[in-house]
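Exam revision sheet. Question 4 asks you to relate a sequence to its structure. Input first:
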Amino acid sequence: MPYHPLLHQQRMGVERSFFASLHHLAELYGFTPRDVTGITYPLNITLAYEHAKEVLSRQTGNLSLRIYAITGNEVALVTTVPYDTNWTLYYIPVKPIYLLEQQGLSKQVGLLLSICAYLLQVVMVPTFTGGMDYVCGAYASIRQWMDDTETGDGEQNYPEELAEMDQLEKIGEQMMAQMREVAHLQAFERRVKTFRPQSNGDRQLRKIAQAALSLYADYPTQSIFGLIPDRDEELAEDDNYYVTTLDQYLSFYWSSRGALAEQLESYVNCDLENNSAIDEPVNYQVFNSPQAAVFHDQDFCVRLFSLIADLSTFLYELP
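Answer key, structure tokens:
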């Protein structure tokens, strides 16, 4: 958790741990900490911290420095590096899986449900039905707008979109319920090993499934939300500071085709276009002990977002 100096009564422990951590940081990055001898707590920590931040900002453009509370009387400096999402929407369509299911392609559907079960249950990718996630709210707003819009003779103005919305609400929830079943996650490895591709599309699907299974094996409990840092309190209270949150750019959704998809795209673009910042996953290096090298491992994020991009493209390109 972030460090708040006025909340700490154990001054000696906080000072000792902070300056030890600062020593480890300065050794790794090769700078001399600011001399704050004779300056009282907590100003001594504030001045030394601000100096270290300034030094690191000159050395590394994308690295941030924070003070985190380790225990009640121990703090440590932590460097963070964000994963660059390039302000991209990572939306995973669910309708194509339903259409495959209707065609009786049970092997392909089973593999896709296992992939999506991992993304939903472990990675915790937000959903679009029956909850408070962003895309769920976007669909609800679009539905309300269409319900309130009628032609002069009282007929509905968007019959095609409303029919699609009815399908989204009924079948979309059924598909998401399937993805919540633990059985699909438990069958993941077996399905990958026994899947026999019969086409180029099948081979592409198996490759995506293998990448997802490998990521799951390497990071069996890693949620994407666990990599999103706490927002600066001053910025969080600024009414003019608009941030694109994780569930706004990463989510399951119904479909990438049709009039309803166009409505969603327009809604999201209008809603997010003026945002000035984005919540991105970060990687931490904690300086509560000497560090041999700079190390910010972005392996999970690189593989995860590549997997989601490949999966979304595969589903979009299904006939």
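Marking note for examiners. The mean pLDDT is 90.
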